[in-house]
Each structure stands twice: as C-alpha cells, then as structure tokens.
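Can't paste images in this forum, so I'm doing it all in text. The chain is below; anyone willing to post the predicted structure tokens underneath?
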Amino acid sequence: MTDDEFDHWCKQQQLTAQILLIIAAIRAAPPSRRVQGRAKNVSGVYPSRKMGQTIQFESHTVELWAIYQMEHDPQVLEFYDQPPPFKIQYQNQNGRNIGHYHTPDFFVLRTTGAAWEEWKTETELKRLAQKYPSRYQKTETGHWHCPPGEAYAESYGLKYHVRTDTELNPIFTQNLMFLEDYFRFTANVPLSITEQILSSVKASPGITIAATLATIPGVRANDIYAMIATEQLYVDLYAVPLVEHWRVQLWADEQTHTAHTYLAIGTTGDHRKITSPTTLLPNTLLVWDSQLWTLVNLGETTTTLLPAVGQPMQLPTAFFLQLFDSSTINILTSEKQTTINEGVRELMDAASPADLQRANRRFHLVQAYFQHHTDIGKDIPQSTLSRWVKQFREAEATFGCGYVGLLPRTNNRGNRLSKAPTDTSVLLDKFITEHFETPRQAPAASVYRAYTRACCTANIPPLSQRTFYTRLKKRPIHEQTLKRQGAKAAYATEPIVLELARTTPRHGDRPFAICHLDHTQLDIELRSQVTGRNLGRPWLTLLIDAYSRRILAVYLTFDPPSYRSCMMALRLCVQRFGRFPQSVVVDGGKEFHSVYFDTLLARYHCIKKTRPGAKPRFGSVVERLFGTTNTEFIFNLLGNTQASKQPRQLTSSVDPKQLAVWTLASLHTYLSEWAYTIYDTSVHDSLGETPLQVYTDAMAATGEREHRRIAYNEDFLMATRPSTPKGNAKVQPGQGIKVNYLYYWNDAFRNPVVEKTKVSVRYDPFDMGVAYAYLEGRWVKCISQYYSTFAGRTEKEVLLAAQEIRQQDKRNAVSTNISAKRLADFIAAVQEHEILLMQRLRDLEAVGVLENLTLNKEGVPQFPPVSTLEPEIEAHSQDDEQLPALQNNIELLDLTRLPILGEYR
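Text version of the structure:
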C-alpha cells in the first residue's frame, strides 16, 4: 500500500495512535531474524509481487503455501515475515512457568484488520499441545488458538491467529504455482485464437482442455493457461490439478459454471452430488442391495463392477446411472467403509500365499454347497464343510465379506505368550535400552555380560545369549542407530518421503518448476596447456531440471564453489534455453546465501529453497547425477583418481597425477558434449524415456511460456555482475570510482553534476580491468588506472594478492593499507609467488572455458568438433613422456626451454 492507501485503511479500522505506532514500526522494520531449515524443513525466500520484496519461509509445504494464498488473496493487503518478537508467558505440562521472546511467522494486514499469524502442521500442534498445554489449545469447534499470544495482541487491540496446514488446499496451491508465470508476466495470445477457444467453450460448456486442443487446430495449451490466468476462461482451481488437462473443465465464466452445477443438482436431487468423472472415479466403493461393490471402470457404453466375492459384472452405463440416480446404488460413506474394511484388511494382510490358496479351495467348495452341487467335495467330511459354511456366513454378517472367514487360523493355535520370566525379560530390555542403545556404543557381548552379572546379583536366571541377540535384531534399526551413532548415521535408515504432500509431486509438475544447483570436485587430475604443470582437480557446477532430469547448465572451474560459479550456471541456463527456473533448490553452502546470488534470483522472480543440512536425499536428483557423471564419463578418461582411493597400492605407473593429460578447456568441451547430447538422448532409468523427450512432451502439455523468455544480452549480463557490499561508490574528481581497492575512470565523470555523487557500481569478476557505473539512466564502462596489469585478471586473483600483502604487513608489523599501486606492483612480480602463480595458471585455463561459452551468430555456445581430440589422446596414451597439444591451434611445448624458477619460501 502507498502512504495514502495506508492512511485510508487506518481510518477505516479506527485504530488508536498506539496501534498505529506498532503497525508502522513493523512495516518499516526488516525481518527480525533469518530463517533456517531445521530437521526436515526446507526454508527459502519467495519474491513477492504484492509486497515488492522477498518473503522468507521456514517450510515449503506450510509457510510457502500460506504465502501463495496471501499473495493471491484480495483480502490481504500486506504481509510481513518474521515481525519483531514479543515476550509471552505460559506453563509447561509440569506446571513450570516459562517466559521467552516469540517471533510469529507473519504479520498480516487485511481489509478486516491486522493480526499476527503462526503457521504449523496439525501433527506438530498436537505434539506441542501435549508438551505445552497452556500455550496451544484446541477449541470444541476444532480451531487452534494460543492464549499467551492472544493476550499480548489483545492488549494492543489486535489479533493473534494459529493456523494449520489443514486450511491450505493442496490442489489450489499447486494450481497457483502452475500459473505463477502467467500471473506475474503477461502472455500475448492472438485475438483469433482467443475467439476460437471462447466459441468452443461456449458451445460445449465444461469441455476439457485436452478435448479443446484436439478439436481446434493451431491452439496450444500455453494459450489456454494464459486465458485462465487473465480470467478470460473460468476453471475451478480447487477441483483438479491443471496439469491433468484431460480432467480440467473449461467454462466461459464463473456464473456459467455455477448454473450448470445447480442444474445437475436439481436433476438428480438436492441430496445428491453430480454424477461426473470427479465423483465416480475408479476404485470407488459402492453399496448395492446391502452388498459391497467396487467400481472398476465407468465407460461411455459399459460400466464394470467388482463384487466383494465373485466375478466382475458389466452393466450398460445408462442402466447403471439410472440405478445410481434412483439411490439403488450408493457411494459407500467413510464411516461404513472404515468399519467394514478395517477388519478385512487386517485379516487379508496377515494371510500368507499358502493361506490364500487354502481359502480359495474352501470358497470353491462352499459356493458349490450353496448351489447344491453335491458331486463336488465328496472327500470332505460333512462336519468340516458345515463348519466352513458357518464361518463364511459369520464373516459375511460381521465384515460384509464371507471370504475372510475361510482363511486358516493356524497362527492362533497354541500358547503364543512368552515363557521367559517377566523380571528377567524386563531386565534384559532395560539393559538393551540403557546400556546398548547409548552414544557409548558398548559392544553387545559386554552388555550381555553385564546383564548376566546383574541377574546373578538379583538372584534371577538370565536369558540365553541367543535370546539376547535375537531381541537386539527385533529392535527398530533406525531408532537404535540414532541413539548409538547419531542422526547422520541413522539418516540412511530413515524412511524415504516420496511426496511433498498428498497431491504435490516432489519433482514438480513441469520443466523449470524445480531445479537443483550444486557443486562437486571431479575425480580427475588436469594439466596446464601452457606449462604442462599439474593443476589439480576441477570443480563441476550442475543445474538440473528435477522434472525431466535434463541438465540445464554445466560449468567447470578450478576455483572452489563461490557466487561466480552460481552466476555462470544461471548464465548458461539463460543462454541455452532463454528461461530462468521458477524455484532453485540449494544446500547450506555460503555461495548460495550471498547478497549477489539472492539479488539475482529476486531480480528474475526465482524462489530459493534451502534443503536441510546433512539430508542429501533432498538433493538426490543432482547428487545422483554427480555419480553418473563420474561412472559414465570421468572414469573413462586418463588421469581419473580411482587409483588414489587406495593410497597404499598407488604406484607411479597408475598415479593419476602422472597420467593426467586433459586440460580444463578440453574437458569442459567434451563434458558439455556428453551432458547436452549423450546423456540428454539416453533413456533414464527413473523416467523410462530420455530427458529430452520428457522435456519436449511436458513443455507442449504444460505451456511453452514464451513470455518468460529472457534475452541473453548486455542487460542480462549486467544483472548477473556483482556489486560491492555498499552497492554504490562516490565519484571522486579526477580519480573516478573506487571498487575493490581500484580506481576506475570514464570521461562521463568530468560532468560537474556527476562529481561527488554516489552512483551504482558493478564489476566483472572475470576481468578486474573494467567496472561499470550507472550514469544518467545507463551503464557506462570504466577503465582501471592500472588497466594493463589488471586486464584479464580475475577477482579471485586480486583477492589472493591482497591477502598476501596483508600477510607480509603482518609479518613486518606494519599497518595494512592496500592500494591499487601496491596490488599492481605485487601482481607484476607474480612469478616469485607460488600461490599467485598457481592461481594465474588456473585462470588462464578458465579463459578457454569462457571462450567456449561465447555466442556464435546462431546464438548457441560454440564447441570444437568432437573428432579433433581423439587421435591426439591415442597418440599420448602411447607415450606418456610428452604432453601433446589438445587443440589443433596450439603447438607442442618444449619444456626444456622454460626457465627454472627457484622455490618460493
């Protein structure tokens, strides 16, 4: 809201001066804390269009869903995350008084008033209610409230609400996420296409998206989704997910949808629901003549029903619907379904294949008895057959399923109670809990000896060692590992969460919905193409689409993970696809939480999700791809480090450092070829198709979204260039702007209006010879005062030089004052310094990678032809003494002519 709108809202609410001060302080204050992912929570930030800033969330299935609801709720005017904390007091379950500062999740301004809101899951609230009964309480109407929070809010005339995940409709939230690209950005649909779609929908109200695409040539799913987002078409967003286009019904407007709904209700009776595919789905349980039936298929001409016992039955669909409309056939209610099916399910789950085989034979004989076929089962005694018939009828009367009465009950025979003395058994369980399942990690044999000693002291007979180990194996392995070895060791045995929610797939419902970004150090040694020196192992950065498993970007560098690697991966994604991910999943690395990275994501409306620490399954898509890259590509190259994993068996003939032949630029070329071509067109085990095919089909079904395309031009490159911590610099007369210890100059600084003013600045982390200043509505290029020295130097190299100067000053006990001249002089003598020399060699290798990423006339990255490298690798494999040139335009290097430098100490 603007200031005038806020003042008008305050007058409508008739707020006191004290309340106005509190609300104004909350609106002006930044978030009181930075959220963090705990346990299994995925935290992150959401770029809010309504608020014009990023909003934090601690759970992407509760708080993020709440943000989506508030973002699209017209009743919500403003909402602020992590408002200033306030103190609350309450008692725990033991009656002890507790007082602490509490930070609610949001402070929300609605048309009806203002309130603090705390969002939690229903399960968590039940647990907290037992632990803190005076803090969280559930009313008779089923709503949760927090008396301490409400008391604080009421003292200022405001509200405090406790809200749960049960208030969030998963289908509606998923549809909001699906349409996010169309809400934020306008998609231009040709008028002729719009008219054709509207005509078709008006002619056939309730037609599905799939039917519309099939009947109107030239119409794409992208056009329909754009019309839904702009309210030219109406869809019930609470009904079915939009991605299931064969079920989504289209209406001309909401009034038409409501009218047809009332018409259907009036036809079938007020107490009936609409007979539609959303009501009568496969596996729906029906009651017909007091018997239980399962709807197998509701076809256009024939409907198939399966009885509880017996063969399937087929009815004409018209006749079935007539029985359904006349209430002869009814849908089984949840209470009846629970009562009837619980006992049946328990009995069927406990039955073995042999038990089912015996029950099938008995069922066949009982059915023959009912049909008076006396010639079947003559070898069965009459008393046995009568007992089976009685069991069948009793089970039919009790469970509605006579079949379960014929299941053998041999497992219930005999004495199933433990024969061990109670005191001995209880003491054994106590020793397992208190002596074995502890961080001490005592051996099982030692615990058993202590147990027998305790039994002798108590004068009771101990159980056998075999019983002790058998009981150990029956203990839950996850809880046992958690108590003995900790959470990280127990993570491998933790149950896998297959879905984020009941209806939300964990990998998204379309390409670019969820992408994973991560780094790893490749298992291969590389050499310098200039000196032939071993430069170590490179770092690989991958950006992968979770839905299609397609690799969106590959970036290779010698530098450890930093915001520069993240920036280059996102640059590559835009360069190749012209798209930015809707959400990016990252880990807790510092490079993912820099101001530059967060600013870039917010600039292009990308949600950042931080997966919990020590929980690699949350990033299983990209983690698994790292392993695939090694096994399918890296391990087939000379210099791979498999032999280094067993250092005691390592010899010079298999030492990766001696066998290294690849350079950074060459490895990047062929790694990109493998990722973008070979892997992309190979069948993926999890998908059953190639990533490229899944990507192509999904884009056509869920919308190409061309309006979200980003041009890979100077404007985009400028947005990816970082700024200084302050973000601006003062224009000094005659010197220019100072960025990272260096002064930069442009003739535009001569303007008296510009002098001594602060301007926004950016710099290129791969070329410190230039910087950029925002003057008079445009970015101008500025040249360093020591351009010849810093041109082509990376930010990493300059920072290392500055660190080395500080170390020298510290050893010499002088004050550290780093200037551009000292940096230039220091870098000029770089050959005398081992650290900077190694960094310079690595930066020179990266030049080849950056050149490969430049655009050609067609706007795609340039890669050398695949066939240029193979003969040279074969030649080198025959003679390891020479280092062949891996590119045709580089001559062989004579190492004997290179000067030998003294070792730097």
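Confidence is low (pLDDT under 50) at residues 265-278, 498-503, 855-891, 901-905. The chain has six domains: 3-168, 175-268, 337-412, 422-455+464-493, 505-709+833-905, 721-828.
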